[in-house]
Amino acid sequence: MQATIQASALGELPKVHDAQLAGVGNICELVVVDNAAVLHSVRTRYKRSDIYTFVSRMLIAVNPFKELPIYSKDNLLRYLPGANDIMDLPPHVYGLGLHAVKGQKRGKSQVVLISGESGAGKTESAKLVMSYISEALGSSRHMQRRESRPRYSIAPEPGTDGLAKRRQSRYSVVDPKMPSIQDKIIQTNPILEAFGNAMTVRNNNSSRFGKWTQMMISPNMSIQGCSVTDYLLEVTRVCSRGEKERNYHIFFQLLQARGEEELKCLDIQPPEAYSYLRGSQFVAPGIDDARCFTEVKEAFLALEFAWEVQMEIFKVVMGVLALGNIEFTEAAEEAEIKGHDALLKVGGFLGFSEEALRSMIEVQKLKMPGGEVVHRKRPLDQAKAVRDAFARLLYGRTFKWLIEKINAKLAQAGTTPVFFGVLDIAGFESFEHNSLEQLFINLSNELLQKHFNEFFFRMELEEYEAEGVSVGVEVQYQDNSDIVEMINGKGGILSMLDDEVLIPKATDQTFVSKVIRTHGNNPRIVKSKMGGAVKFGIKHFAGEVTYDVSGFLEKNMAKLPDEALELLKSSSCSLIEEIGVRVATEAQEAESGNRARKAEVLERYRLLLPRAEWPKFIGRRQVNDEEKLKIMIDVLCLQQALRQRLTEMGLDENGLALGKLGKVPVMCCMGFNGIQGRAGVLRFDGALEIHLRRDADSALGSRDLDFLLSAMVQGIGILRGT
Ligand SMILES: Nc1ncnc2c1ncn2[C@@H]1O[C@H](COP(=O)(O)OP(=O)(O)OP(=O)(O)O)[C@@H](O)[C@H]1O
């Protein structure tokens, strides 16, 4: 298409320089830098299969979606420190590694942050830069090149069925009895990918978790140890996912290997037999599950996981799949598990007794005020939710357990403060259907972008200043702090979601309404044009995403019954028992941490009101108007007294009051600054104690007094955000 430009307007167009057309290797070499010039440079280079372009020390990598001959050992050697002058070498991810090694030599820790949308090639870049570091910092005496290609699959190309073969391993361990630390680090990849990667609509090998890998570097520049930290594995995928997607690779790897003699005892069936796999894809183009499983076993071997331990892990994976096959008598309103077979199978894999498992899923144990425990059959939907939550917990915890064990194998001897770290998080996602998982993933990308903005621009500007160079123009960049604040700040969307799950009758719809009421005027929010739609959109730094909020509340709850913990601890499978003990310890720590924190707060701001000023506890009964009025007066007195006390204590006029009724924790966010804000949760009893906290995030307003009142009438009220 040709655009006609008026001759008079030609002078207003920017002049194009030759370098801009040629596609420079470092954007800083451009005489004039603007969006068009950057884009044109990167595009021109990409057409020549030069996928890398530097912008100072930042590297732009464009996914080639094909194999390029640039990752050979010979090429890597060209980038080793001292081999060549970096200025003479083409931009490359190895060049980025070289920058890092140079920094390391000056005794400074180095970090590579990788950002980009899903499928952009982050994980592959992370693996390449880590291979480089391994090679540059350590001897590779235990590594033997099998072939010079990276270990990735080629994603389906548009218009083809894209069945490309999975590539050979980059390195094979020559002597599995003596793998070096470098070998071990590289070998973590097949395991983590098997358990943490899955096919999505964007990427057939998409990382469904974030990963921070930290290699500890000794003063003599060798790798001493390594640790991996995982973030936010998408556990919801275990029980459901889009029809064009697939569950985690490990399920399909095991299914592919079902003919292997040593796995026969697991009685693995074809994928159609498993409810958690049905309804989505069974095959990921470009991924050879059988081959990957062999690599996983090789990796386990290199990391010194005994075969018995590997079998335990595989049993847990099969146990998770088997859980999904537990069915219920649909006609009944109360949960009733059909037959025994599925329960027996799960019990066999996970080391539970059939009865204990049945009871955990079917029966709810309610603790009554007097301490008595009443057993009641769960409603059908609740039992299904417990089954699925248990499957998600098991999978997610097994993943964490695996990482812990891997870290133990990679643990360093001695300490060194210098490290090389790579952060690879799930990329920005915008699908046809976006749920809570996408909101979390996109938030982490926003946070990374925010960090990048603050760190990179500030750092560059400070460097200029230190060198006495004037930038000459005001440097502007797209600031995304407001989006981060809106999602993750005080009173932001996520804290509203946390509050909402506590409200008995809350629904996804009530949550959306509140989000719109609170943040609807924020230019970053896109309101749905359809009234009553359970959706909202957010204008992220990387584009607009519409979130379907159906299921947000349930996904955010993830609360398992106490019996689940008991069941885990009772398992005869040591892996599950370990998980049970860990979950219990964490729960205890969280509780005592909360208590300690609360105690500290309470200690500091203990507020003793004269008894006469305590509002009466009314209990769960209807009250008439006269009584309501009295309560109202009581509340006002309380407020007045609190206000006075706050002032005496030199606090500002907003505070968070924490009360206690019997065993039920009570707190009430109160504003003493007139009529503003929202309220919290309130309970009163004869032995009421009111405590204040300085960092109240909300205040009590006049409208909230109604809620406060109704809360008191009911004995307990949840007032926040209503
Ligand atoms: N340098 C490369 N050379 C050849 N192909 C590549 C390269 N980088 C990525 N690919 C191809 O693109 C696919 C997706 O890359 P990768 O898994 O690294 O993306 P990602 O950004 O980590 O995505 P996600 O956020 O979904 O995990 C790879 O499986 C591979 O087929």
From TrEMBL:
<protein>
    <submittedName>
        <fullName>MyoI protein</fullName>
    </submittedName>
</protein>
<feature type="region of interest" description="Disordered">
    <location>
        <begin position="140"/>
        <end position="167"/>
    </location>
</feature>
<keyword id="KW-0067">ATP-binding</keyword>
<keyword id="KW-0505">Motor protein</keyword>
<dbReference type="GO" id="GO:0016020">
    <property type="term" value="C:membrane"/>
</dbReference>
<dbReference type="InterPro" id="IPR027417">
    <property type="entry name" value="P-loop_NTPase"/>
</dbReference>
<dbReference type="GO" id="GO:0005524">
    <property type="term" value="F:ATP binding"/>
</dbReference>
<dbReference type="GO" id="GO:0007015">
    <property type="term" value="P:actin filament organization"/>
</dbReference>
<dbReference type="GO" id="GO:0000146">
    <property type="term" value="F:microfilament motor activity"/>
</dbReference>
<comment type="similarity">
    <text>Belongs to the TRAFAC class myosin-kinesin ATPase superfamily. Myosin family.</text>
</comment>
<feature type="domain" description="Myosin motor">
    <location>
        <begin position="22"/>
        <end position="722"/>
    </location>
</feature>
<dbReference type="GO" id="GO:0016459">
    <property type="term" value="C:myosin complex"/>
</dbReference>
<dbReference type="InterPro" id="IPR001609">
    <property type="entry name" value="Myosin_head_motor_dom-like"/>
</dbReference>
<keyword id="KW-0547">Nucleotide-binding</keyword>
<dbReference type="GO" id="GO:0005737">
    <property type="term" value="C:cytoplasm"/>
</dbReference>
<dbReference type="GO" id="GO:0051015">
    <property type="term" value="F:actin filament binding"/>
</dbReference>
<dbReference type="InterPro" id="IPR036961">
    <property type="entry name" value="Kinesin_motor_dom_sf"/>
</dbReference>
<keyword id="KW-0009">Actin-binding</keyword>
<dbReference type="Pfam" id="PF00063">
    <property type="entry name" value="Myosin_head"/>
</dbReference>
<keyword id="KW-0518">Myosin</keyword>
<feature type="binding site">
    <location>
        <begin position="116"/>
        <end position="123"/>
    </location>
    <ligand>
        <name>ATP</name>
    </ligand>
</feature>
